[in-house]
Amino acid sequence: MSGSLRAGSSNHNILKHIGSLLPSDVNYHIYDALSSIPPFDPGLDNDTPPEPVITLRNAITAADAIIICTPEYAFGVPGQLKNALDWLVSSSTLVDKPVVLITASLGGENAHASLQLILGALSANITDTLLINFIRSKINADGNVTDEDVKTGLKQVAINLKRTYNT
Ligand SMILES: Cc1cc2nc3c(=O)[nH]c(=O)nc-3n(C[C@H](O)[C@H](O)[C@H](O)COP(=O)(O)O)c2cc1C
């Protein structure tokens, strides 16, 4: 799941890059419906929540592990990502779910720390974290990762991920 809705997003491209590193027998899916999640309303968080929320919850439940890859906006977590996570509280969808957290941003330290708190509140099992700063200078115009340290970091994420869902 990318926390950026931007066309050509660096975070989306990082997720694509990770997908290219995983073995072909891994069913890897980039969730791209974040913009369809309605504003969180506790009054609607009942047995029949909005359809996009059901779809998101089902996708996460079916996954062995998930990757959240996000920028930071205004020293915080992008609103639409936080909104989606709020919909996952009551359903316990993320409880014990292996989650890799990647923050790829200009700086990103605040969102990275904040998301670890949020995922902790959701009782997710954070298996790996990676903070990539100055992201725009580490991806070229075609969306390919060009920075060797980032490539190494993402390769390690893929290795750790495979280890997680193999256990
Ligand atoms: C409204 C807005 C606020 C931003 N605020 C921050 C910030 O507080 N910290 C930061 O590291 N980057 C900030 N950025 C820069 C983003 O990190 C950068 O645009 C990044 O490439 C966005 O990720 P994307 O390429 O996946 O869309 C901000 C960008 C926007 C559009």
UniProtKB/TrEMBL annotation:
| Domain NADPH-dependent FMN reductase-like, chain residue ranges per copy | 2-126
Going by the entry's taxonomy, the superkingdom of the source organism is recorded as Bacteria
Q: Pfam families in the record, alphabetically?
A: FMN_red
The record's section on InterPro entries has: Flavoprotein-like_sf (IPR029039), FMN_Rdtase-like_dom (IPR005025), NAD(P)H-dep_reductase (IPR050712)
Q: Write the protein's name.
A: NAD(P)H-dependent oxidoreductase
